[in-house]
Amino acid sequence: MRRLRRFLVRLTTSATRRRDEQRLREEIEDHITLQADENVRAGMPPAEARRQAILKVGVGEAIREDYRDEQGLPFLEYLLQDARIAMRRMRQAPAFSAAAIGILALGLGLISAVLSLAYALFLRPLPIEDASRVVVVDQRIAGDARRFPLAYPDYIYYRDHARAFAELAAHYSTSPMNVVTPDGPANVMGSVVTANYFSLLRLQPALGRFFSAEEDRVPGRNPVAVLSHDLWQTRFGGNTGILGTAVNINGTAFTVIGIAPDQFHGILTGLPPNDVWIPTGMFGIGYRYCDGLARGCRIVGLVGRLAEKISIQEAQSEMDVLAGQLEFTFPATNRDRGVEVRAARGVRIDEQTQDVAVVALLAGAAALVLLIASANVAGLLLARGLRRRKEIAIRLALGASRGRLIRLLLVESLVLAMAGAVAGVVVAIWSTGVLRGFFGVTSGRALNLDLSLDPRVVLAGIGLALLTGVLTGITPALQGTRSDAVGALKAETAGAGMRRSTLREGLIVVQVATSVVLLASSGLLVRSFFMLHRGPGFDPNAVAVVRFRPSLVGYTNERAWAFQRAVIQRLEALPGVVAASPAVVPPLPGWGRPVRAILLDADSGDPSRAFRAATTFVGPRYFTVLGGGVVQGREFDDRDTPEGSRVVLMNETLARRLWPNGGALGSFVTIGADHCEVVGIVRDLQWLSALETPEPIAYLNYWQQDRTNTWSQDSRTHVRVSGGAAAMLPEIQRAAAALDPDVPISEGQSLGSQLDVQFTAVRAARTMLVVFGGLALVLSTIGLYAALAFAVGQRTREIAVRMALGASRTDVGRLVFRRGAAILAIGAVGGLAACSVAGPLLAHLLYGVSPRDPLGLLTGPVVLGAIALLAIWLPARRAMAVDPMTALRSE
Amino acid sequence: MKKKTDVRHGTLALMVLKTLDVLGPLHGYGLARRIEQISGDLLTLNTGTLYPLLLRLEQEGAIASERGPSENNRSARFYRLTSVGRKQLQSETREWERTAALIDRFFVVKPQDLT
After folding, report:
1. Is the ipTM of this complex over 0.90?
2. Closest Cβ opposite residue B47 in set A38, A63, A71
3. Is pTM, for the whole model, over 0.90?
4. Which of A517, A513, A515 is nearest to A826 (CA)?
């Protein structure tokens, strides 16, 4: 109570700055007068009585300070005062301040950008009202770490029985939709959704209405569609008359009933944006490979809004029970299948697990840069502290307490750090833009991913800046105020700085070591990136890949295949095209290649001896298109007709696996219903990270696919172009459109750019690490130079004495050079040792390069060494140029 | 010459309150002299300690002050104990006695007392 009352009084005094100076002056004056009166009574002459009284009272200023402290809140006031002094000091040394602020801004900005990427990928809620109550539900299979979509009938069961949700909606949000617009067909990503999708998300249409409850009931009855604001504006001219008109989507006429709100692009972030929504009643238009409404066809994702006062855990327990009931009722389809309820945050969880590694790497690298930056600034502050020893000694002599001085110095570094944080926001905005180029875009199209700086990220950055300010300031402050006043005032330079320079040099060692780690890692990634682009022996930039999907517009098989054949002929006739070949997927990692049983004729009696390997379909001259790779035998050609005898190609790994002693060529194997002859062996065509071994693959003939499924209608046609493939793409697409304008064409790009998308992580890590590594190089070199130059400056007298006593200039130069070289060597060895730890962490991003690859590991550090030697040589030269006479006289 | 000691930290407030309680309103100088006198001139009071303390006690409400004429007709600020201060004095006195009694027991204890 007492404390509180006093605090309030002091707070008001502080706030109003109302100082009772008058009162204290009166009190002291009274005190002196009374004391003097008494002295007079004791027999002193009046003048002497007053002098003695004043002596007894003591130094007025010190009393006044104590008194002032009691009146206001000194801590707060001194903090403000210190901040004012710090600002003044910053203005007085603009070069120093600019350097320190710039260095800190780089470190803080980069780490904020990485934080904001992490936030967007893992934490950002959906951009809708009350998003914290929205959850997603995925299928889990016992013993499998992945998440899967669900079957629509299961959704209906959950929707009708779960009480944990206020609403539960189903959606299939990766539906390719070919929309015929006034200026030609647009290939967009659409979403097939239940009627309650928009109301669950609490969205209001920008125009018209959303689906009514009736519109998802009866399959095929209601061809109605909602368009995105963006699509409406860019492709339909923002014409309000669009409501009620028919738009052709995937070959079917849909009535446009509404326009979604601006900026809304569906609920799957990190994927291409949704531009069209159709009700689940029209599932057949959005998905053709199985009946989207059937139990065996698992393609819908679930999104729910939790009922009031229900937690995610409670929803999970209820869903567990319901999933168990489904498993019991439908053992054939639902055995071992459960569900997982989690908050709708960030990108899809399976992509999150891939991204975690990259973000962790980037965050680690950014943290290292921040560490170097902090060490650098701490070094600068230490040096300045040495230069300020005299000032600090005077302050101490005048009665400033050590705590007070430490606080002043800390506030100075905090002010620097905060200024660095502000400047860091600019760096963060810039580097977020760079990151957006990697993570926000696929195949040149923007993803539905908000990568803007979040206030919370900025707050975290400011917190980090405070921490940095304290960490960089504390050692220099402790060091700077330790000196005994007399010593500092007397001994100007001499050897007094030895211990301090040891600390500073320690900081440089840390910087050099950290830079070595960053440079070596970025060297490995750059090497890895080159290896990726050289690929497994062919030039990906010479190959264009275009996807033709007649199945989307409901062609008959005959019509579709006739189209695919005609396209190949037409393309091969184009000047500049070397060869064209249809395939199912590009020869890149991560694409679906179904694993099938391959049975040798020798084992034909025993299917259990079959070997399971990945299979894919490629057309005639496929390896010509890729630029070679046939090791033995031949590749597919026009002899291999749909009706002809079945043929298969194998990669070397598979051939070796099946026939360890050779003899693969000409042998027969059974794959599914087909008895195929091995007509050729091809090289392992894979991009392998340092951790992987080549996968066995069997190539089946595109024209000999099972013709009963609709998949076989579509192709990713590979075209080899002499010269750049990217430049030929428009011509290729024009040629195909001239043949049949109705067939949807998508994904048109060179294999090289597809590769870039696929290896976003490697590219992002490479670019950022090269930037980080370069920064580290510059910062640590500057640090090294500054430390040595400063040491030379401090030791001028010592050097002069040495010279006067007979040391040659070379001796002096060697003295400085040796010191610098020792710092460099210790740092480099430490850094390389740390690389043996960092290397394995990188391994999953290294393709075709070992974590111990000497070229990748050493290039950066060698460059660092060379530049650092220069940074050492300059101060050494300056030391050699010292003129002993001048130096000694000036002291 | 007797050796003068500084005031033990934290006890000056108690001395000030007790002196005001016993002697009634006093000005700062008088208070300082009285305290030195009561201590048998063993204590010497620092002005820089006394006046900030008086201000603090006033902010806490334990004492109040007003200007008035001193004994030889000079104007001075007189401090007096408030009811809050009286209560504080009582509780601090009890506290002190308890501490003193406790410490006393340690001074009188002999090895044979504990066997």
Report:
1. no
2. A63
3. no
4. A513
